[in-house]
Amino acid sequence: MGPAEALAIFAAGAAAGAANTVVGSGSLITFPTLLAFGFPPVLANVSNNVGLVPGNISGTVGYRRELAGQRRRLSWLGAVAAVGSLAGAVALLALPPSLFKVIVPALILIACVLVAIQPWLSGRVSASRNRRAARQGAVASGRERISPLLGAGVFGAAAYGGYFGAALGVLIIGLMGTFLDETMQRVNGAKNALAAVVNGTAAVVYVIFAHVAWLVVLLIAAGSTLGGFLGAKFGRRLPPWALRAFVVLIGVISAVKLIGG
pLDDT by residue (tens digit) across 38-78? Predict the structure, then answer.
């Protein structure tokens, strides 16, 4: 790997760390970058996942103010997310790599759709929350009963995240926003925490049982840590449509590359 490739991977990691904190689709930046430099799909996915964990953590720390009062809820959902992620990571390593190459283009395109419709999804989530509040009255933040449907949804999203994970954050935002009476910023903070659990659990499995490209991991980790911090600090000032359009474009290009490759 030459200096130019290393710099490109670091930059992709920084962009992904910021995107994960703000939108939740950073893998649609780093994964295609690794494919473009000739890394096999499964190795690229594994190394990308491990490298993005520090960015997930820095994004979570950056949103610590929004996490206040959510400890009990996130402890329960975090345990569910860890089990789901473990199932997804085991599936990735147990199933043939050829199957991953067939499945992932469809997952990427689905993720691109989720990123593209996020404003509409957020609007629906907000409207649903307002209707519930009107019917039931205000519920103390962080004290409502956690729906079993939310737990099942988080498990499914975490299994997806352990297997591949692009747009995992969008899935979690949709789930938590639908079932919880919280502001979108507090939901986003919870999303960062759960994404850190999902990616961290999968990373442990990958480090123990899979081949990891450690130089790639270090470059993405350094970039994503910086990006996660900057995303938490400045992410609310970025034009969401520009970031969303960039992520979707990169995702579509990577899906086409996988299908054609």
Answer: 999 999 999 999 999 998 898 888 888 889 888 899 999 99
pLDDT of residue 244: 65
pLDDT band at 102; cut points 50, 70, 90: confident
Give the 3-state secondary structure of residue 197: helix
21 within 8 A of 227, measured Cβ to Cβ: yes
Q: Long-range contact list for 89-95, CB < 8 A, 24+ apart? A: 89/162, 89/163, 89/201, 89/202, 89/205, 89/206, 90/162, 90/205, 91/159, 91/162, 91/163, 92/42, 92/45, 92/46, 92/162, 92/163, 92/164, 93/205, 93/206, 93/209, 93/210
The domain spans of the chain are 3-260
Q: Which of 185, 155, 161, 160 is nearest to 173 (CA)?
A: 185
- What Å distances lie between residue 41 and 38, 103, 207, CA to CA? 9, 11, 17
Q: How far apart are CA 179 and CA 188, in angstroms?
A: 14
Residue 160 CB partners (closer than 8 Å, separation 6+)? 88, 107, 168, 171
Helix (H, G, I), strand (E, B) or coil at 202: helix
Q: What integer pLDDT is reported at residue 139 of this predicted model?
A: 44
The token duo for 118 is 């996020």
Least confident of 167-171, 181-185, 202-206, 254-258: 254-258
> How many Cα atoms within 13 Å fall on the side-chain side of residue 135?
7
pTM of the model: 0.79
Q: How far apart are CA 159 and CA 202, in angstroms?
A: 9
